[in-house]
Amino acid sequence: QVRLVESGGGLVQPGGSLRLSCAASGIVFSIHAMGWYRQAPGKQRELVAAIGSGGNTNYADSVKGRFTISRDNAKKMVYLQMNMLKPEDTAVYYCKVDPFDPRSNYWGRGTQVTVSS
After folding, report:
1. Is the predicted pLDDT of residue 66 greater than 90, yes or no?
2. Within 15-100, where are the H helices?
3. Distance in angstroms (rounded) separating the CA atoms of residues 61 and 64
4. Which of 61, 70, 86 has its CA nearest to residue 20?
C-alpha cells in the first residue's frame, strides 16, 4: 500500500524558514511526479509546488522565489524548502503522488506550518 508521511512543520516567525519532508513507500517513487499542497482553515486545498520524475518544477505564484521543491529518488523523499515565510503561508501542508492527476488520491496526513509573530 502507498504511504506518505510528512514532517518538519512547526511554528516560525515571519521571515523565517522551514524545510518539510515527505517519506514515500509502496510506490516506484522515481517514475512519479510529486507535489505539496496546503490547506488553511476555511479555504480550499491548493497546489503549492510540484516536481516531475525528471526534476522539472512548478510553483504557485504566491510562493515563487521563496519555496523550493526537490526530491531524492534513492531515499524516496520529497522536500519543500520554505524561506521568507509569511503569515499567509500558515496551513496544513500535504504531500501527494501525481499532483496533476485527479485519479490519483494518495495523500499524506499533513504537517502544520504556523507563521506568526
Report:
1. yes
2. none
3. 5
4. 70
